[in-house]
Design brief:
- Helix 13 (about 640-650) crosses helix 17.
- This protein has a 33-stranded mixed beta sheet that branches.
- The protein folds into 4 domains: about 1-180, no CATH class; about 215-345, no CATH class; about 350-530, no CATH class; about 560-735, no CATH class.
- With about 725 residues, it is an alpha+beta fold.
- It is about 20% helix and about 50% strand.
- The protein is elongated, with a radius of gyration of 42 Å.
Amino acid sequence: QFQLRIRQLGRLLPDSLHYLSLGEIGYHAHEGYIYLDSIRISPLHDGPEVANAYDIAVPHLYINGFDPLELLQQQQLHLDAVQLRNPRIFTRSQSEEVKRGLDSLARANLYELIEAYLQELKIDKLILLGGELMLQQQQQAPEEAFRAREVFVMVRGFVLDSAARAQPGKLFYADDIDVGMDASNYSFVLPDSTYMLQVGHIGLSTGDSRVLVSDLHLSPIAGSQAGLAPLSWEVEVPQLQLSGLNPKEWYLDGRLNLQQLRLQKPSILMRHQQLQPAFERNPYQVYAFFRQHFSQFSIADLLIDRASFREIRHPADTLRGLQLEQLSIRALGVKPDSSDFLSPDHLFYSRDVRISVKNYDFEVDELLYKGHVKELGLHTASKELYARGLEFVPQLDQATFFARYGYARDHLEFRLPDVKVERLDLDALFQNRSFLAGKLLLQGLDIQALKDKHFPEKPDKRPPMPQQVIRELPFALRLDTVEIADGKVFFQQKVPGLKKNARFEVSEMYGRITHINNDSISLIAARPVAVFNAQARLMQTGQLDITFRFPLADTSNAYEFEGRVSRMNLDEFNPLLEQTAFVFVTDGVMDKASFQVKADYLYRKKKAIYVYRGKMRMHYHDLRLQVIDKKSMFEEGQYDAKKMASFFANTFVRKNNPGASGRFLRVGKIYYKRELNKGIAGHWVQAVISGVRSSVGLQNKDQRERLIDKLRKSRQKRKLEQFQTEDAQISVEKE
C-alpha cells in the first residue's frame, strides 16, 4: 500500500509567458492510478499585446493502469485510460502562428518527443468529458471567437513507438478518435463577408472517417453583397454527414476526397431580388472556389435526402414561386472541373444525377383544378424522366364547378399511374429549353369527363386542332414514339330532355404515336406526318382498331382517320344515338364495321367550311328502333306519339345490311360540319355517328320528312290514322 500526495505545485513554462500550477497530485500504487486536481495553465500577462495566450483549466485528470516498474525497467508506459473532466480551454493567437503550429503538428513525428525517455507509449483510452472550448484569433473580438460547450473527445488505441516513426499509420497514431461538441453559440462569417454560417453540434470519428454536423444554418448578411445579388439563398440542414474524410490529406495536400456527403432533410429558400433573375449556364465561380481552396476535390456519392425547396420571386414578377417537398438528389462521381455546369454528359459535374420529388401538388386553370404527383424523377446517366401517380382533378364538385364557370365545359378527371420518358436529350433540355426524346410511355391512362349541356357554349371558345397545338408550343418538341398501354376514356354529357347521360367509353386501349416534331426546318423539308395507331374495347364489348394521320406541316389542320369495329350488339350505341338522333335500339347485332374519314376544308359559294367526310360500311341484322321525343318523352299521355314515331322509324330504316339476299351492302355517308367551339374528340364521335345514321337510314331532317310524306300516301295510311291526334301530328312533323 503506497500512496503519494503533493499539493500546490507550480512552475514557469519554457516560453516564459505562461505558468503551470497543480492544486494536488496523487498516486495510489495498489489501485494503479494517478490523479491531478486543479490543473491550470495561465498567461503571466493577459492583454491584447500578448500574441499567443493560453488559459487552460482542468479540474480533474485521472490516469489508470500506471505501472512504475514497467516504466523504469522497460522504458514502456502502457496506460488503461486517461480521463479529463470538465476542462476549460481558451486560446488567443495570431492566425499565422496557428497555421504554423498546425503544420508542425501535422508533419511532426511525435515519437521523437519521447524516444529519449520511452521506447513505447500506449494509451488504450483517452477521454475528455464536458469540456468548454474557446479559440480566438488576435484580430477577433471575444464575441467573434469560436466557442463550444460539452466537448467530448475519445481516443482509442493510441500508440507511439519506433514503428510509428517509420509508418505514422492512422491520424494522430490512434485507431479511432471521436470528437463531439455543442457549437450552437458560434456564428462564422464566410471569407467574402456575404453569408453567415451557424452550426449546432459537431461530431468527428476517424475510425470510419466520418464528420457529423447538426443544425447547420446558412443565411445572407443584411447589407452585404449577397443582399444585393440577383439571387440569395437561405439553407437549414438538420443533419450533415461526411464519410471518407482524410483530415491529414486534406490539410497537408489540399486534397478533399469524400466517399459520401449526405444532407438530411434540408430546407432551401431561394429568393429572387430582381425582376429578371440572372441564371448562369456555366457558373465558373463554382469551379474557381474549389480550385482556390483545394488542389483536388471529389465526392463519390452526394445525397440530399428529403429536402424542402421554396422559391420566392420578386414582388413585381407575375410567375408563382416553385415549392417542393420531399426533394431528393443523388449525384454520383462529383468532380468539379472547368466544363459546363449543365453539360448533359457531366451534369452538375457528376457522372450520374438522380433527382426525385415526392407528393408534389400544383393548381392550374383559375384554381378550378388541382394536380398531384406521387413521385417525379430524373436519371441523367440513363437519360430517363419518370412520373408516378399523376392525377389532375377538379377542386369543386360538379354542380359548383359548372355554376362557377358559367359555360359548358368538361368536368375532367385525369389519372396516369406511370409515365416514363426514355432517351431524353438533356443537352437540349437544359441549354436550349427543348424537349427531345426517343420514347414517351403512358401506362394506365384514365380520362373521365362530364359536360353539362344545360349551360351554353362559351362564344369565344376555339379548341385548337392537334397539329396546331404541336406547332404552337413555346419550345421545340420531338418525340419519336409515344406508347399508350391499358388506357381508358369515359365521356358523359348531360343533355336537356334526356333522363340518362349520353356516354362514350373506350377501355383497354393500347396505341402508338410516331413522328411528333415541331421543328420549323423539319416541317418544311421533311413534312412529317404523325401517325396514331390504337386498339381498344369500344363500349366494353366491341374491338376497335383505328389509325389517325396528322400532317404536321399542314397549316389548314387537315387530317384523316380510319377504323374497324368487331361484332357487337347495336344497343351499345344507345347512349350516343339518344343524344344525336333521339332514337334508341331495341334489337339488332352489328357483325362488323369499317369507316374512312377525311377532315379538311370544303369550299362552297366562295366560303370555306371545315367538314368531316367519308364512308361507313356497317354489316348488321335484325335492327329495331324506338324514337325519343326529347320534349315530351317523360310526360304522361305521350305514349301514342312515341309509338307512332317509332313505327315510322322501323318502317323506313334498313333492318339488315346487306339485305336479305346478302348481295348489296349499303354504304353510309359520313358528313359532319365542324363546330368551332367543340373539342376534337366530340368531332370524331359526331362524324362516326353520322355514318351510323346514314347506314341504317336515319338521314337528315329533310330526308325523314320526305319519307313520312310517302308513308301518308301509301297503303299504310290507315295504320297511321289510328295514331293521329293533334299533338301527335305536330310531333311527327317535327321529327
